[in-house]
Amino acid sequence: MDIELFLEKMFQVVLYMSIVPIGVGIYCWTYLSWPLRIFWLSLVVGLLISLIGDYLMAKHINNHVMFYVNTATDAVLMTAFFSAFMHSPFLQKFYQGLCVGLLFFMGWGIWTWGSSLNTALRLSSIESCVVISMALLVLTNQLRQSTAVSLRRQPVVYIVVGVLVLNLFTLLLNLFGSQLYTYSARLFNLFYDTLAPLSNLLSYIFTCIGFWQSRSRALPLG
Question: Which domains does the chain have, with CATH numbers?
Fold first, then answer.
């Protein structure tokens, strides 16, 4: 097995490893707050999108549409998740409006630029920037409100760190990936199939810790 095939298989395996934090979330379900349940839903949706995308590929059907579906659903669910931790009504409305605007921009972008890898990377980069800004805002608020001891027990802190890691890697891949793809599709695949699994794996680890910490931070919701 050559390195390209190994990395491709590893990428697929890591994508399906989202079943682990999904399982941890189910185990801790009665302790999860509603925002954490929304985040759990985003994991389920992401897994379903991966399954559908692989099915389309197996049937030799173009699965580019799943890139856009993933970007759109992630924008909606991440906005709903982070908005719950924003104390300012103005910021909540701002990011909710920004999410709606992003969805319209995605439709315009696909219509204008066409459905291509560059379009998918461009729209994904914009969405990642929005998610990163929300994550930094919420994380900053958590750092201001919590002591060093209690901070380690805050589930949202681990979740947000995982989101930051994933989206920073995604942004890095998107920004340099398009240039690599133009230069060499092989190098792009190596670059993508190396960093993408790593970022996903780190995100899953932080998510599992966050869900597990909810057991000691929250009372059962029933």
Answer: 3-218 (1.20.1070)
